[in-house]
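Schema walkthrough. Field components (list of strings):
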Amino acid sequence: MSDHEHHHHGDEGHEHDRPLSGPALRVKALESLLTEKGLVDPQALDELIDTYETKVGPRNGARVVARAWVDPAYRKRLLADAGDAIAEFGFFGRQGEDMVVLENTRKVRNVVVCTLCSCYPWPVLGLPPVWYKAAPYRARAVIDPRGVLKELGSEVPEDVEVRVWDSTAELRYLVLPERPAGTEDWTEEQLAQIVSRDAMIGVAEATVPARTV
Amino acid sequence: MNGAHDLGGMHGLGPVEIEHDEPVFHSHWERRMFALTLASGFHGKWNIDMSRYAREQMPPAEYLATTYYEHWLFGLQKLLVEQELVTAQELQAGHADAKSDACAVRAPEVEALLRKRRAARLDEDVAPLFRAGDRVVARNIHPTGHTRLPRYARGRRGVIDRDHGVFIFADTHAMSRDKKPQHCYSVRFTARELWGAEASARDHIFVDLWDDHLDPA
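Field assembly_structure (string):
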């Protein structure tokens, strides 16, 4: 499966120099049919793509996390009613209608997966990366979360509990990572810079990049 | 259905490979496929559970051998024909025999459609069958239709961690559009209950399940 995925990692610049692949041809034919039928408007398609390619992404979630780190009242609201607290930033909508925030502590690491499809909190993280949607993660996150985390360079100590959340309903999960030590005097904006997408899925921790310490 | 989509616990699929600085889409056709799916869905001819069920019906060998947006392509083609937005003949031929009566969503309408705050949560006053702390067992069911109860949890004992309130029941919503309003819970299973003595004694797996998936234990 992972070998297969690599077929899509081509350089966009060369895309038009070679014959279109099977799915590319079929999608092009489908778009042309649906446009001809009057069922889709190509400009609306562009707008949908632009929204998730340039406007919505994990920087949104990072702002939420950074706020929760510096503002205890906000953190409380976020853990009590994530949907409303996240909407304070204007982040809400499709695939984020009902949000739950999971708090990491010294004793608990949360990990989010969707074993059945690819459920993911779009308004705060954007569209999911390939690895989150692909079979290896969906298969292994529930049966061997510690093994997966170790492979990804985020080994969990024995005395820390791992909680895996399988997104089987219309609830979307966001992990609130622990604030790293050494960031006590950082501003909210600086903190948002070190919150990665993977930390908000739960497969990494928020860390201070070596050069800024 | 016991399809290839129900992947939890499967072995032999290889390592998890994170691509650094991954683009949102890896090729032009993925972009268009993503947008075609959302734009077609705006006609309201199907719901998200029907959409998931359509993708799950891709034959298992094909599902595992193809990528994410190929699953979407399979699902969308199936729904378009089943819900009579296009005919099988039009899909085959690649051109329209007749224009649709339906009205395409236009670009200025897109933002509002993506920013709705309600989806599956319902206002119906339905009493919960369980409360936080109750011990439950997930039903051992194997429906040939859609279900959000993954195989690895069936027949396993857990505890209600929290009640999320009343939601559309995905299993019936996918098959007959019946919302069958009922409570949805996070159910906490020990890793050992699901995976045996080799699993960590400390770890837990939480699965979101509905009243109709659960019995008292």
